[in-house]
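Hey, resending since the last one bounced:
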Amino acid sequence: MPPPVTGLFVDLEFPACVSSLVGRANTPLAPLSERITWLRPQEICAAPHLFPENRREALGGQGILGDCWFICACSALLQSAALLHQVFPADQCTWEDEGYTGSFTCQFWRYGRWVKVTIDDRLPCLGHKLCFSHCQDQGAFWLPLLEKAYAKLHGCYEALWAGQVVDALVDLTGGLVERWSFESAEESFRDEIVSKMLDLKERCAMSCSVLHSREGSGDLGQFHAFTITDIQHGFTKDGESLLLFRVHNPWGRSCWEGSWGKSSDNWAVMDQKERSRFLSQIQDGEFWVEKEEFFQQFNEVTMAFPVNEEDHIQSIWTGALLSHTQQIYGSWIKGQNAGGSRNNTSFPDNPKFWLRVREPSEVYLTLLQKPRVEIGASNDMHSSRKLQREVSDTAAPIAVGLHLWKVEKRRFNLQKVILTPPVAGTSSHSYDRQLHLRCELSPGYHLLIPSTFLRDTEGDFLLRVLSNGPIILSEIASVPPVERASEDVMPGIWETLELKGEWKKSNSAGGSRNFPSYHLNPAIPFWVPINSQLVKVTLRQHNQENQCHAIGFHVYLVPADGSLSPYSQEPCASCIPHSHSLEVSKICNLASGQYIVVPSTYLPDQECKFSIFISTKTERKPIKSKETLGQILEEISVISLMKSK
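The structure tokens again:
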């Protein structure tokens, strides 16, 4: 054994000790953690290198850590040099370079941005061999280093035990990922997916998973992910066409003795040349599966959208480059805007966004939940920030959904719009960390509403829109939540109208009723509908908090003949005395009819912009929707990998 290497970078944030291996997840890794040692690559083999010359030898193998989902996703990086260098930046000094320091930096796309994670190259070993991921080429270390950086991002290696291939693909590509379930799928749907896989096999990472064992497939394990490395047509001696999938098992050993296993008699239906062509293309851990058997044994397929050299995502459906991207961060806050699904009358309270489409476009709407566990990442090459490793049981994603409506103009009746069927929407609220909708949208304005399944469920999200045509994404300003005056007065459903105005000196800043210029103030009209007597009027000045004017307002009924002189009659409701506040409000009992509200500053000629919010209590019709809740996600880990090879 070579002596330990000294004088190299040591990562104090992710030390070579038990705390970097296990947290509190109580996985089978915990009992082994005390036996694990940490070695640098030059202490493991004579000639370490990052990447093998043969790309096929860069395929990953799984060790004693249940992170097959991550290892399979890493195959995406082997499809694109641009992606590989994005995640594993080039020109880093390695073991044979004079400038080698023992540190490496990787990047992951997390919650809307690329974050850098720097590690030292001490890797977990058992018996002087890597005990977690490794490459087919035992001297290649790109994958174990990337795995360590990903473990640091999550707090410890154990945090990678069980996960979703789709989540790792998003973290590695920053793009879109499609997942298809074949449970009860029609044959036409399967054929469409196979056609898509054949077209894109050279440019897209593809994975397949077994979520539960079926009869005769025990060798494939349960909750296990595999990489699809090729799809080829073959021919029997009689000229019959066969479609075979080449599948790689990250366990790194042969595990399949199905109809087209290596020793199967089925190969006899091919002539010697054709048989040799297929069998010569498999290496350790790979096997061939015929199309029908593939759909019998595997439950789902995951495919990452290709990313070109300019870092543009390409649609797998049309080939269009999704070169226009915008994103906005948002939150669901209990008691404010966590309205729940369309099953709830509070659905309109959810955050709302405008999407303006300039020309007919293929558009992808994505909703990404913020990780609920702190991560060990920063924007700096070497972060001094303390790494937080606490892995919490509350880290699981919440059930979310997304719906979109086309509206003819930006000023619209929200209640009427959401009672109509959406242009696009999730069929059920799902626990996916990222979900997306594909739409063909016409020019104009569209209303986007993300929601949680249950009302008052809190969470943070990123709304991201990708399109092949110009788009503008913006947030619709939220209306202040209606304050409860008392439990018997304020419960119910409220519709709010926002109107904007301005007090201008010598023009519309007339001051209070104490001054003869009062009639110069803006007069804002509004209508109280039938069966809606309870109205809340809110006046908000757009000013700095330390520069507030004293503000107030009066409400007047408009006579049937339309004539009105506000300064000559008594108001039917008032919010006085004037207050030096950013916002004042008044709850009024008003009969159905036409009204005006006259907002004012106490003194004349005080300039400021303002907003008036008219909140009307209404008997809202129930939203005709029966939202459903998606299944809890089956995480892929595989405990049975502990079997010896």
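The first helix runs from residue 18 to 21.

Sorry for the duplicate.
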